[in-house]
Design brief:
Helix content: over 70%
Structural class: mainly alpha
Bound molecules: magnesium ion
Oligomer: single chain
Distance between the termini: 21 Å
Strand content: under 5%
Largest sheet: none
Number of strands: 0
Shape: elongated
Mean pLDDT: 97
């Protein structure tokens, strides 16, 4: 069993993960509209991954006998100046998600909730990867600047990204 406070906090995190999914879907749509097919593909994969994150928390609440309560998903931005702008927003957003995950870790420690702490460890590691990826894209697009050949190459490279189901869901 988990506490009501932890139940509520994880419910909020499910909403935040779905908001992230919605944000990246909006980025994919904006990239599609601008014929940036590779970038659109990259954000589509990101959209799928965020839904996995929500699913992992949903499964966890279910396994703890705590019902998931879905809340409305707030509006997301719809347009970005260029790919650099998109990836800067992605990095800022992932830093914010890291802070949220760390707040959950702090709460689990405070409550001596070792099961939740164990589940959260995957997210702590995942956030390191999310920030590393986003900051890599920011630095690549900064280097490319306005060089259209470089921008074209980056778009092609990002289009190679393949979706892989998150490890905690592979046996579900
Ligand atoms: Mg996430």
């Amino acid at each position: 069993m988990i506490s009501d406070k932890m139940h509520k906090a994880i419910n909020n995190q499910i909403n935040a993960e779905l908001w992230s999914a919605y944000l990246y879907l909006a980025m994919a749509m904006d990239a599609e509209a601008k014929a940036l097919k590779g970038i659109a593909k990259w954000f589509f994969v990101q959209w799928l991954e965020e839904q996995d994150h929500a699913r992992i928390f949903e499964n966890y609440l279910n396994s703890q006998g705590a019902k998931v309560v879905l809340k409305p998903i707030a509006e997301v931005p719809q347009e970005w100046r260029d790919p650099l702008d998109m990836f800067k927003d992605t990095l800022d957003h992932e830093k914010e998600v890291t802070r949220m995950i760390h707040d959950l870790v702090r709460l689990a420690i405070e409550e001596q909730d070792f099961a939740t702490l164990s589940r959260l460890q995957w997210f702590v590691d995942e956030q390191v990867e999310e920030e590393e990826n986003a900051s890599g894209q920011v630095s690549d697009f900064e280097k490319a600047g306005k060089d259209s050949a470089m921008l074209f190459r980056l778009d092609c490279m990002l289009g190679d990204r393949q979706y892989k189901k998150a490890e905690p869901l592979t046996d579900k």
